[in-house]
Amino acid sequence: MALPRLRTAVLVSGAALLTRRALRRRIARSPLWPLPALPEPVSGHSKRRATSVRRLLITGRTVVADGVVQLRLEGAGLPRWEPGAHLDLVLPSGLVRQYSLCGDPDDTGAYTVATRLVEGGRGGSREVHEQLREGLEIEVRGPRNRFPLAEAGAYVFVVGGIGITPVWPMLRSLAASGADWRLVYGGRSRGSMPFLAEIEGLDADGGRVTVVAQDEAGHPDVAAALGALAPGTAVYCCGPEPLMDAVAAALPEGHPLHLERFSAATGDATGPGSGAFEVELRRSGRTVPVAAGQSVLDAVRTAAPHVAYSCEQGFCGTCQQRVLGGEIDHRDDLLTDDERGDSMLICVSRCRGGRLVLDL
Predict the structure, then answer these.
(1) pLDDT category of residue 264 using cuts at 50, 70 and 90
(2) Which carries the bigger pLDDT value, residue 327 or residue 22?
(3) Which of 23, 104, 165, 354 has its C-alpha lying 20 to 30 A from 75's C-alpha?
(4) What backbone phi and psi angles, to 5 degrees, belong to 50?
């Protein structure tokens, strides 16, 4: 009798094990099981912003201009990047900040970024300057590129201050290829302008680089710089908001304008038309109220504290979420028309009706 009982016990145990494994696989395919599996989530993971996470060692810290430090971040087998790309740095406090890559795109052993100390800012630049030292490991995400160097017959760059960081690799690439380019580089003083000597070194024959230090000559003459552009010339601008506004206003029709913002332009989750509504988080099955004057991000984080975000001003794209239902009130300047069809930046954009449904 003992042998049949043992055989039965073994069979029952085996069946139970197989059932548990099948159940785990089914749940893995659909965390909301027994509901139907939803499509693969894209919220916060747009293909345009696809990125990877790694930890890099700070092996160099150099002051490259007044108030500007450059960091060398080393690691093995790093992806090559294109001029205009940036990294997300996860700072010791947990803040996430974006900094343009300004080193060698072909260097797969290190990334280089530079940042200016912003007095009265939101704390990220001060943390970089005061806490990031050689020998410290830091988490980074990227690289990503929302400011790529497009094909063009000629190029004009209008840059202010730390805005030179994404442009500097572009200039090196164009100079090496023999392309037609010009640069207008402004700053508070020559001592405050990163990479100035190296940039002037690219213009050995003169005529390509115009340096305008405010304490010597005031502000750059944007209208003169853009007044006689050859057909097919692409214009790139990075710097303070007033400079970018001036470039946009002076640019003749028919010339593409490429902008890289380090701060928000018009995004505001609490301005006019910021009434209350509710947001359904489809994957978690929860609905959260968004109060008048409250951002969707702040409301969503009460139920989903893990949701990714960074700038909270609508220009970095970190908080992009897929929208499954409802009419979006877009308040950013970053998303493309295609992306606006089914996604939003929840730090600034809102709902035109009473309800949004997010893929969260």
Answers:
(1) low
(2) 327
(3) 165
(4) -55, 140
Of 135-149, 188-202, 291-305, 312-326, give the lowest mean pLDDT range: 312-326
Amino acid code (one letter) for 85? A
The band of 14, judged by pLDDT with boundaries at 50, 70 and 90, is: low
Distance in angstroms (rounded) separating the CA atoms of residues 170 and 238: 12
- The model's pTM is 0.71
Measured CA to CA in angstroms, residue 229 lies from 192, 226, 253 at distances of 29, 6, 10
Phi/psi of residue 155, each to 5°?
Answer: -135, 140
Kindly compute the dihedral angle of the four CA atoms of residues 328, 334, 337, 340, in this order, to the nearest 10 degrees. -30
For the record, the structure tokens of 325 come out as: 């239902």
164 closest CA partner among 87, 39, 65: 65
d(CA 354, CA 358): 14
Reported as a single tens digit per residue, the pLDDT across 132-152 is: 999 999 999 889 888 999 999
> Would you give the end-to-end CA distance of the chain in angstroms?
56
